[in-house]
Amino acid sequence: MKRFYQNATVIEAEGGFTVSLDGKPVRTPAKQALAVPSRALAEAIAEEWRRQGDTVNPRSLPLTRLCSIAIDLVEPRRDEVVAEIAKYAGTDLVCYRAEEPAELTARQHAIWQPLVDWAALRFDAPLAVTAGVLPVAQAEDTLRAFERAITAYDTPHLAALHLATAACGSLVVALALVEGQIDAEGAFAAAELDESFEIERWGEDSEQTRRRTALKADIELARRFVELLAPSPQ
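Now predict its structure.
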């Protein structure tokens, strides 16, 4: 799409901020105003638009895209999104450990167990951990605790959590990322622990590289989005 504007500016609006392109507000694909709760996020979105060249490349507007998803897709179907995220708690990646080799089991324990322990304390949601592939049932109280925690997020944070959970394949890792318990690099390392171990032994093919690059970008986007949502210091 050919660039159709000269300037991108941030405008304070009721309850938040919007981004304007030559005086016209940026809108979502569903034609809703792209309104965000923090100036930092609005400024970052405006910068995405300022950096466009002679053509506008939607792939280089990740914050704009995630904001649009929050407004158009997450807000009108919150209950469905909460349920979709909460399903991960029943079979969370970090609860399933290898029986061998010893190096892998030790790495899983070192990286995953602190996240399991943190989630138990943070959300009053202790998780059962098992070795092997047979499913382990999680307590109903634990599943309800995770669902309550997810429901408590506002729409922008819920959109970030949804993105992170899908990318990480783990609710626990995604919650730790969104809550600031781990950074994007730590989340990627936890989510891709098993595959990284295999790559160290056997190498990485081009398809793995593409997939892992995309997942890392999504994890980094979710974390940056949450950081930009934080209120500016007074």
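The first strand starts at residue 8 and ends at 13.
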